[in-house]
Design a protein that fits this description.
It contains six helices and seven strands. By secondary structure, the protein is an alpha+beta fold.
Length: about 260
């Protein structure tokens, strides 16, 4: 019987698997390179489109999506703030811009939101109480129709509970408060006032007196300013626009109150 020779073991069989792996790896990088080139072309088209769009509105700085330009550039990873300051994450209808707010003013805002919501209802608070931070401090605006009747300086009796809730919160703070009176450009004032500034000041002064009579406000904490009809919120001719301009804004200033 013929003796069988032992089978030859192929020690180079791994080269086949290695060659397949290298081929797949090469294909992978070719695909990735093609995709990166395609994205670059798309980004160039987007950049050119943005440049043309903004150029139509006037001269602007270069928009550089890569963030490597030597001029004014915008990078997708840069934190960009609007001119008014940082955008606050407030509930719907109350997103405003400001610099980083004072923690105490943040607390006042939250207390006002919680307190006034009990009067207006949770579903209406975002529409009727607008708050924003600016360089002065916390600006509170009651946006209800006919807060002041046309030609009148007193808040309507049925809306005074809102003033009560705002005044109760602000009376417990240590901040200076400025009440700013406004009127509608088309509003007819009473003949008791010589000009629009006196009339708008009378509205703010009425609120100040109302609070002083009902809460323990230090009188020196309250200040009154008047802007007549020169800072309207709405420029429409409908009744709602006119009513929005007849208002008093409450500014909780950044300055701490110091007793004389």
């Amino acid at each position: 019987m013929k003796k069988k020779h032992p089978e030859h073991v192929n020690l180079e069989r791994w080269l086949v698997s290695y060659a397949d792996f290298i081929t797949l790896l090469f294909a992978f990088f070719v695909i990735m390179y093609a995709m990166s080139q395609s994205d670059t072309a798309k980004f160039r088209k987007v950049t050119e489109g943005l440049r043309r769009a903004f150029s139509a509105a006037g001269p602007v700085g270069m928009v550089n999506l890569g963030g490597t330009s030597g001029g004014e550039s915008v990078s997708a990873f840069d934190m960009i703030e609007p001119p008014g300051g940082r955008t606050l994450d407030l509930p719907a209808g109350k997103t405003h811009t400001a610099a980083d707010p004072d923690p105490e003013l943040q607390e006042v805002r939250e207390l006002l939101e919680e307190t006034v919501s009990l009067e207006l209802g949770a579903t209406e608070i975002s529409d009727h109480l607008q708050m924003q931070f600016d360089s002065r401090g916390l600006v509170v605006r009651v946006a209800v129709k006919d807060l002041f009747p046309e030609g009148g300086i007193e808040v309507r009796p049925d809306l005074r509970p809102i003033l009560d809730r705002i005044g109760r919160v602000l009376s417990k703070t240590k901040r200076l408060i400025r009440l700013e009176g406004h009127m509608d450009p088309y509003e007819k004032k009473s003949n008791d006032f010589h000009n629009d500034w006196e009339f708008s000041c009378a509205r703010a002064a009425w609120v100040a007196r109302y609070w002083l009579e009902r809460f323990e406000f230090e009188p020196s904490r309250l200040g009154v300013a008047c802007y007549a009809s020169f800072r309207p919120l709405a420029r429409g001719t409908d009744p709602w626009s006119h009513a929005k301009n007849r208002r008093v804004e409450f500014i909780i200033l950044k300055n701490q109150f110091e007793a004389p």
